Amino acid sequence: QVQLVESGGGSVQPGGSLKLSCSASGFSFSSESMHWVRQGPGKGVEWVGSINSRGQISQYQQSVKGRFTVSRDNAKNMMYLQMNNLKPEDTAVYYCKRVSGDYWGQGTQVTVSS
Predict the structure, then answer these.
(1) SS3 assignment, position 30
(2) Which H, E and C letters describe 39-102, residue by residue?
(3) For residue 93, which of 20, 77, 110, 113 sits 20 to 30 Å off, Cα-Cα?
(4) Residue 110 CA: distances (Å) to CA of 26, 39, 41, 76
(5) What are the pLDDT digits (tens) for 22-33?
(6) Measured torsion, CA atoms of residues 6, 10, 16, 18, in degrees rounded to the nearest 10
(7) For 3, how many CA atoms within 13 A lie in the half-sphere containing its CB?
């Protein structure tokens, strides 16, 4: 079955960096576009960024553009989210999600605080 497992979250000070990973299994990862989404405390789910199946095209929410980078390694069935210059408003649980179908991971917590 489809399985998505996020890792790499943690606590960091404003201006810091984190790199999240998403391990995918149970489907043809290299054929699927993928999202990163997040849910902050008391907020709804928010799209962060996406990458196409071959990793050639990525798109970002305006608030993270220039700070976050989505990448993937299809040989390893992995997707990544490099987050730089983190801000308190980036605090959220981050999820990887397959674009097609309602498949999510369990999420990884990112907390940005001084």
Answers:
(1) helix
(2) ECCCCCEEEEEEECCCCCCEEECHHHCCCEEEEEECCCCEEEEEECCCCHHHCEEEEEEECCCC
(3) 77
(4) 26, 10, 11, 24
(5) 999 999 999 999
(6) -20
(7) 5
